[in-house]
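User: Design a sequence. Structure:
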């Protein structure tokens, strides 16, 4: 029972909108009924009916969950109330080999309650993470941002003023990213393009940008942060180490497969002989955090090409579909 409950709770953590479907599957795994269906009559607790031929289980929602497949949630479910507006009716336990008992009803109530608590716990943890991100973003904006602004006004040279202004822009992008729990890929790509254009223009270099996608998924904070920092590090390396005058950035998403390609026309050679310090090591670390790999290749016409490839970038169920 614990094994079934654990798997269902983890699946529910990834897709809370599938609450009713996952609960129905869990009950099916435990009782193996011939039939399970959604019904409108909702008891306060699980109840054996028809002399043991069936078991009626009320659906209890945690806040933020919804029903799919077997039915839509009612008003109480939408508002995160203690009881749902429908129940699941199972007929003929163990493929008709035995009747349902009161012990089965108590077990069903216990399973439903544990699943509800697991969802509520995950939501509490996520709320805590969101609040902490917002606090950090606010502190960075109010404290570090104010200090940088003061330094910019007091800078002794125009070059120093421009440098601090660009740092402020980087800080603004970072705090905005921390404050948002998710980012649509299209929106994030627009910010990346604007940020890189500003950086390269200030350095007297050109940006060639390409985005190809067959869907527009929501990026998690981890995905957004990893791609943002990798792009910045790779472009910085092209400018300051490769002395590039042109950087080509290509971002492709086909199905669940992501390919990020950053190529420059700089003086870099033999990447296999490079010493991977904090910069390149950070790119490797962030690619690994996404479940992907990274490689640097010497371009035939000169310069370096970096490719970041993630085969399972888009988790099932979070895509917004074709665009």
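Assistant: Done.
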């Amino acid at each position: 029972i614990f094994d079934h409950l654990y798997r269902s709770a983890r699946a529910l953590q990834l897709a809370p909108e599938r609450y009713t479907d996952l609960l129905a599957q869990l009950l099916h795994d435990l009782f193996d009924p011939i039939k399970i269906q959604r019904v409108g009559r909702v008891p306060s607790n699980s109840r054996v009916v028809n002399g043991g031929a069936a078991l009626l289980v009320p659906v209890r929602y945690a806040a933020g969950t919804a029903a799919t497949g077997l039915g839509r949630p009612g008003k109480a479910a939408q508002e995160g109330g203690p009881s749902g507006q429908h129940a699941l009716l199972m007929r003929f336990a163990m493929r008709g080999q035995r009747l349902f008992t009161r012990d089965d009803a108590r077990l069903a109530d216990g399973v439903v309650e544990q699943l509800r608590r697991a969802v509520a716990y995950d939501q509490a943890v996520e709320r805590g993470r969101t609040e902490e991100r917002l606090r950090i973003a606010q502190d960075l904006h109010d404290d570090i941002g104010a200090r940088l602004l003061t330094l910019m006004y007091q800078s002794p040279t125009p070059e120093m003023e421009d440098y601090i202004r660009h740092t402020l822009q980087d800080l603004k992008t970072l705090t905005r990213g921390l404050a948002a729990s998710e980012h649509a890929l299209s929106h994030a790509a627009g910010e990346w393009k604007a940020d890189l254009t500003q950086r390269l223009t200030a350095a007297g270099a050109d940006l060639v940008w390409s985005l190809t996608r067959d869907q527009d998924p929501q990026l998690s904070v981890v995905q957004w942060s990893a791609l943002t920092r990798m792009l910045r590090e790779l472009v910085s390396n092209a400018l300051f180490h490769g002395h590039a005058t042109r950087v080509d950035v290509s971002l492709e998403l086909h199905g669940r497969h992501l390919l990020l390609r950053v190529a420059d026309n700089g003086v870099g050679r033999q990447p296999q002989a490079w010493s991977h310090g904090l910069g390149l090591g950070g790119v490797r670390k962030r690619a690994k955090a996404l479940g992907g790999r990274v490689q640097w290749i010497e371009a035939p016409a000169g310069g370096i090409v970096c490719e970041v490839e993630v085969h399972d970038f888009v988790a099932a169920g979070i895509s917004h579909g074709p665009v």
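Residues 102-153 form the longest helix (52 residues). Residues 66-84, 316-323 have pLDDT under 50 and may be disordered.
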